């Protein structure tokens, strides 16, 4: 089942989307919004699946599905937690800095609490005041959870995964350093994130989701040029249940929590830092990693961060090459007060 | 006007509360929940004030107001941002550690993004798995905001303050160190916070709120014994508009955002670290600060963190000694899976 929120008020209007992303059917009879459906998922999900089946069979009235009319699946959410599951990324950053990485980083996940009050739709621009802040994409796989108790077991954590989507976790790279030094996490350096048009239930993934990891190439493009295609199941030191267990060590999580696994990052086939796509590598999911690898290989970063007018595209195809979520397509724009 | 959310479903049921906190009237005709009222505040607020006036005049049906029946005013919120506005607190912690405090801390606020998906009602216990985690209270003044644009001016920031309340920002002190070292902020060390029964509009404060700071003693008690009574308008290096401007440097904030000013901390009259109440001082708003002052004065911390069975009370009275918000009264309990 695939779900989307058409732009409408603060929380959008829930629709069920066809597997091929061409059509959608109103889901208002089940729940007005995705959050409302998640609040009562065990009752809502079977009824939404009935609509999905009717939509595939052409037995329900529907409209063309247009990603440009979509808000984020959750336009505002009660929680956005983002882990750094691909420790390779962190190791590279440390290596470029000449800093030792604590051994605990391989067993204790990095995770931050992100702003969840305003999320961008898949085609909404990225508004930034100052290009000098170092505008970067971060392409990630994220899950939407049902209620999770404090001290969740691995089984409870896995069972809490209700939907999967992709995020562009926009990062202002030149503001992260001072915020990391303060230790209090990211407030100014992480503006509003954008999500794919569609959130998808785990059963749609077949063998590409084993209950803990999605394993498909995550495709990023900058200005139309392939930028990254790492395999999301590789080098994922902490899988989703592990990240959920980390988050629930001291507290419960409410239904509708979005939990991310961080920038996807693969080692090169030879075990070294990943190469750009044009050199036969899998590329990157953020410019910061490319700059880090350039620093390691060439002594200094070469690739600039994003400029106003640049375009970012993030998507994922199934093993048959069919788009799963629809694409995030965003322009970077100068923020001006309206 | 005073507002509360009686326990009912995930978001509570909005009521208007009498100034003297004895009675409340249903507000369902205006908005079912406080978040719904905040989503349309310019329309909802005048109608809620009409109910408040009718309640004071005895012209509307009402029920006794019982803080034990209250959820947090926002039982789940889209955002919880907490600044450290009382830099004196941070300076003391650094002094006890023998660490220099960066000069920038006096001009660039510390602020973290907290978990907002589950908040505790004013009489709900604090459930913790392990006493050894160092269970601490943090008594703070917080505001609830309307929508705030990115790059808000000081005037816009001040105008966004719709409601004021108190929080017990529960902190697991022995988990903060490792999380601060990781730089990603507080995920495990800040479990669910609890709020006062009632949120209050700024106009209720008269001279005690100047549009930027509340200036009244913040009263904390541990096991019934007075623990802190610092003056919230003193030593507040960053006032609320300054904190809001910090948060909106790179992004907008959605209506219903809760923004805190951090643990309230006053210097002693002689300019030194504050003394305990039993020594004639104003005491503290968290045990960590008392332990810090003990370290500075006596060479080591003496006061233990909270134990299972301990009781915390946080409240604030007006200049005439009348309670403004009702009290947070929480027992610390061992968390057991149900």
Give the tags.
globular, six-stranded mixed sheet, five-stranded antiparallel sheet, hydrolase (chains A, B), homodimer, 338 residues, FAA_hydro_N (chains A, B), alpha+beta, Fumarylacetoacetate hydrolase, domain 2
What is the helix/strand order of chain A?
A: EEEHHEEHEEEEHEEHEEEEHEHEE
The name CATH uses for the topology of the largest domain in chain A is: Fumarylacetoacetate hydrolase, domain 2
Largest protein interface, residues of each chain: A-B, 52 and 52 residues
Assign the CATH superfamily of the largest domain in chain A.
Fumarylacetoacetase-like, C-terminal domain
Structural class per helix/strand content of chain A? alpha+beta
Q: Percentage of helical residues of chain A?
A: 10-25%
Total strand count of chain A, please?
18
Strand content of chain A: 15-25%
Mean pLDDT of chain A: 96
Rg on CA atoms of chain A, Å:
19 Å
- Whole-Å distance between the termini of chain A? 38 Å
Name the quaternary structure. homodimer
Number of helices of chain A: 7
Assign the CATH architecture of the largest domain in chain A. Answer: Alpha-Beta Complex
What is the makeup of the main sheet of chain A?
6 strands, mixed
User: How many separate domains of chain A?
Assistant: 2
Q: Which strand order spans the largest sheet of chain A, edge to edge or round the barrel?
A: 6-5-16-9-10-12
GO molecular function (chains A, B): hydrolase activity
Pfam families (chains A, B): FAA_hydro_N_2 (PF18288), FAA_hydrolase (PF01557)
Keywords (chains A, B): Hydrolase
Protein name (chains A, B): FAA hydrolase family protein
